[in-house]
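# nightly structure sweep
# worker-07 picked up a monomer target from the shared queue
# config: single-sequence mode, recycle default, output format = structure tokens
# input follows
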Amino acid sequence: MRLGTMSNAINAGTVGEVIDEAHRAADMGCATFWSPQIFGQDALTTLAVVGREVPGIELGTAVVPTYPR
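# output follows
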């Protein structure tokens, strides 16, 4: 079974905190790391940086509004 986790830091933390959170998820054996876009940072941009810094974990977005893009 593959397990994943959702970011808690994306809406209130820094990009560095999100990267640290993704590193911890990968170290714990999570296969996926998900991020919503509610009020905080841009989810797609932040996940692009996470993908560069944390190889081997799959990334996904939970909620991304398209109209402000």
